[in-house]
Amino acid sequence: MIMGITDRQAQIVEMLQQKDFLNVEELAEYFQVTTQTIHRDLNALCDRGIVRHRHGGAERHASVGNDSYTWRQSGADGAK
């Protein structure tokens, strides 16, 4: 278990090992909590660099070496 995260957040991380993307609505239903609670969980995991928050859900945070060229290129637009 990752230090400093809740049991629910740890379960979300485990679920992301099986699926590339998790939907906020589905997570809220699965855990029987509000979507706001899931958003807070995802934000906490994003702040730790564990997941990436995407519109409507979250995805695994891949290392830079695993990111697609398009993804890396779009992230560097502001640096040029």
What characteristics describe this protein?
80 residues, alpha+beta, Arc Repressor Mutant, subunit A, 50% helix
Summary of the model, kept short:
The protein has 80 residues and is α+β, with helices and mostly antiparallel strands. It is 50% helix and 14% strand.
User: What structural class should be given to the helix and strand makeup?
Assistant: alpha+beta
Task: Specify the CATH homologous superfamily.
Answer: Winged helix-like DNA-binding domain superfamily/Winged helix DNA-binding domain
Order of helices and strands: HEHHEEH
Percent helix range:
40-55%
**CATH class, please?**
Mainly Alpha
Count of discrete alpha- or pi-helical segments spanning 4 or more residues: 4
Query: What is the percentage of strand-forming residues?
Result: 5-15%
Question: Which stretches are poorly predicted, pLDDT < 50 over at least 5 residues?
Answer: 63-77
Mind describing the biggest β-sheet? 3 strands, antiparallel
- Which architecture name does CATH use? Orthogonal Bundle
* Total count of strands: 3
Number of domains as seen in the coordinates = 1
**What is the radius of gyration computed over CA atoms, rounded to a whole number of angstroms?**
14 Å
